[in-house]
Every structure is written in C-alpha cells, then in structure tokens.
Amino acid sequence: xxxxxxxxxxxxxxxxxxxxxxxxxxxxxxxxxxxxxxxxxxxxxxxxxxxxxxxxxxxxxxxxxxxxxxxxxxxxxxxxxxxxxxxxxxxxxxxxxxxxxxxxxxxxxx
Amino acid sequence: xxxxxxxxxxxxxxxxxxxxxxxxxxxxxxxxxxxxxxxxxxxxxxxxxxxxxxxxxxxxxxxxxxxxxxxxxxxxxxxxxxxxxxxxxxxxxxxxxxxxxxxxxxxxxxxxx
Lengths: 110, 113
Description:
B: 113 residues, 7-stranded mixed β-sheet, 4-stranded antiparallel β-sheet
C-alpha cells in the first residue's frame, strides 16, 4: 500500500515563505499532486510533479525527489487568503486513484 | 466551461434510508472518481468509473454502496440503508483521461440522523 506523512499544522506570517513537506512510502506511482481546500470546500488543484525537480506556478512551487521519497509545496508572498488545508496526494500507477495525506492546516497571520 | 457539479450539496437521511449523490463531470471529461472525507481527515478514494464501466472499486465498502456512470446523465453514488458512520462529505472528481489531473466538485455533505 501507500502512506503519506505531512505536518498537521503550520503557521506563517503574511508576506513570508512557507514550505509544507510530504514524505511517502509506496512501491510505485505516477506523480505527486498538491491540492488546497478551504473550510471543507472543493479541493483545488495546485501543482503536480511526475518527474524529480521543481515545478513553478505563480506563487506556488512544488518539488519531488523520488530517491528520497519526499516532496514539498512552497508558497511565496503569503496572503491571508492562503490560510487553508493543503494535501499531498500520490497518483497510483494502476487505477489512477489519488491517495491523499491527512493534510496540513496553514494559518497565515498578519 | 462549467466545473464539476454535484447535487445535492447537503443531504439529510435517517438511519435505514437510501442516499443518492449525483455528479456531472466537466465538459469533455469521461473519467469520474468518488472520494469520501471525514472531519479533519484527508480524502479517501472510493471508486473510479468511465462511461458505463467501473474501472476500480477497491475503496468501496463491500456492502450497501454502489456507483454507476451511465451513457447518458450524471454519475450516481448510491448508499443503501445508511448508518451514522456514513455521515461525511462525498466529493466527485473528473479528468479528461486516465492519469490526468483530477478536478473536484463542491461535494455533498451527508448527515445521517
């Protein structure tokens, strides 16, 4: 099976940079995705890494290292609206279902 | 282009009743996934469907739960004889093809009294 670990809570100041880590155990996968969820609303796709390295999309970047079974989401120039839960998810290589971590609750303070 | 649509947004059922949750994928998407989320938890995969076919139901409970995605109309997740433990948010996602990015709907919040 697969398992993912991410910190349960992170607090950061508006305008700062924050990194949310995700470590995983799996026998194989297509890629690692990141989703944002506000107050139990629809999870919103943020970023995807199929290959090792950094993917940049505006203020959000995501990184994957398959050899280290590790990835992270980097949020720059934090805004109050970034306060939300962030989930890493592995996409399996059979069936393509997403296996989610338990999520990291990010609180951005003034 | 409308996003993934789910209805109802909120559903209240008494124990023993049936719950039907509907999901209309994004236009051009033929792959549908259902996930369940308990409070303070991540989303748990339930079932993956393409038109008229169940591709992967490894996350679906063996009893009382079923899903379909007919040739015409929305995908339906059906829960028979609901119990209090079925209370959760049920999210549907769609993608244009297998292994593509999945886009989520707003979810249906099921409360079983």
